[in-house]
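Incident review: delayed structure delivery

Summary: a single-chain prediction request sat in the queue longer than the usual turnaround. Root cause was a stuck worker, restarted by the on-call engineer. No data loss occurred. The affected request and its eventual output are reproduced below so the record is complete for anyone auditing the incident later.

Affected input:
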Amino acid sequence: MRKTDHSRPSASRRSPQGEAGGGGAAGSRRTPAFTRTAVRFASAVLLAGSLALAAPAPSSHAGASPAPSSGSRETAAEGCDEGPAACHGGVKWLYRYSYSLGVHPFTSPHEVRRQLTDHFWLFPVSGACPARIRPADECDLLGGNPVRVEAVGATRLQIATLPGHDLGDGLHIRFAFSRTFGFHYLVVSAWQDRPTRCTRSTPCAMASRAGAWALWKVLSATLAVSAYAA
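Output delivered after worker restart:
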């Protein structure tokens, strides 16, 4: 078998293509090109994998689906401990937005949350609320919109609207903080006990979601800076 293997290259060298020299040269040119393509493809795959690990998990969009996935149900159940019992049967999010707070490798999500609750004037519409908020605190946000602090956890803050709020009462908003590879994120989720005058109106509901996205964007930008002092 070895003699046969050695005889094949000599036979190919005696072939017309070998004598012409075109086939061998073309093959030698194709081999490095193929190798370079393979290396580039492998590098692209490795880079994509690295970015996927560093990127945040995709968040749900407002009104994306009537029923959340199993993962969303678990998250909702955790957040609804202080909210309506109906949440445990499956929440329909009014909206769920994710924001980046930048890179803070030496700051924990707990410290970022504490920075907000201990200096609540960082909240874009803090209004007449105290500088340091605690569970069960009730106060008015800007415009005379009353809210109650439902929970303050290690990495989350949850508030609920009270009667007299412009968006109606029974609206629950949770601010959850997390960190992945030094990158900090804020996820703001909202749900309600029952439809309100605003959420029953499509234009009002759409305007409310758009306004909430812009408002929490301001909050995320503020926390991205204040996190350096946390």
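Verification: The first strand starts at residue 95 and ends at 103.
Action items: add queue-age alerting; document worker restart procedure.
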